[in-house]
Specification:
Number of strands: 11
Order of helices and strands: HEEEHHEEEEEEEE
Mean pLDDT: 81
Structural class: alpha+beta
Strand content: 35-45%
Radius of gyration: 31 Å
Largest sheet: 8 strands, antiparallel, barrel
Number of domains: 2
Low-confidence stretches: 63-73
Length: 219
């Protein structure tokens, strides 16, 4: 009987210890699990949103426009650009169109037009998806819309009540490849092409395809 009593006491003691220790073990494992979860980065397609600055390089078929090359290094310099990515749109501020205008009307006539142009902002809608490289980047399927450039030629004589004449240039923009945002360097790169131009609804013959390559970094 004495032995049975001792066995019962031992079992009761073990149960008591288990009830006391078990909650502590559970909380410890839970805390460790939470710590591990906090180290796992959370990715979102909205990670591409933000303000960017960088360069835009213009290339006119069949050869690179010499305006973009440095006389010393003979390397393309590009034009400085800024953009905001928000609401599934790349919003380019003050899009540099000088080389595009030159390719449309020629060098001599372009200078007068460029001097009288207002700032041109251009938005590019897109749909985003993670790349299949382990979420190291986000791919942007660009859906560019036509770019409209409205130009008011300077006039010397104008009758009373007469409005300034305005010329509308419609540029068809296409994107053959997807844009990309990389997490490692926070870089946004994409390419669009001007493939056709209409001046007041009339297609421009022999327009050289003009490519715009963007390379920007999030601020």
């Amino acid at each position: 009987m004495k032995i049975l009593t001792e066995i019962k006491k031992t079992r009761c003691f073990n149960r008591f210890v288990l009830l006391v220790v078990l909650p502590g073990l559970i909380s410890t494992f839970t805390a460790c699990s939470n710590d591990d979860d906090s180290d796992i980065p959370v990715y979102s397609l909205k990670d591409v949103d933000g303000n960017y600055s960088g360069k835009m390089l213009t290339e006119t078929a069949p050869s690179v426009n010499p305006q973009n090359y440095s006389s010393k290094e003979e390397q393309p310099q590009g034009a400085t650009v800024t953009a905001e990515v928000k609401d599934n749109q790349i919003m380019i501020k003050k899009l540099p169109v000088d080389d595009l205008i030159r390719s449309i009307v020629g060098e001599e006539a372009a200078e007068v037009i460029i001097e009288n142009l207002d700032d041109i902002n251009y938005n590019i809608p897109y749909t985003a998806a993670f790349n299949d490289d382990g979420k190291g980047s986000i791919l942007l399927q660009l859906k560019p819309e036509p770019l409209e450039i409205k130009y008011t030629p300077p006039t010397q004589v104008k009758a009373d009540g007469e409005e300034d004449p305005q010329i509308t240039v419609k540029v068809t923009i296409e994107a053959e490849e997807q844009g990309q945002y990389t997490y490692k360097d926070k870089k946004l790169t994409f390419v669009i092409k001007a493939t056709q131009v209409e001046v007041e609804g009339v297609p421009l013959k022999d327009f050289p395809i003009t490519t715009f390559s963007f390379d920007m970094v999030k601020k």
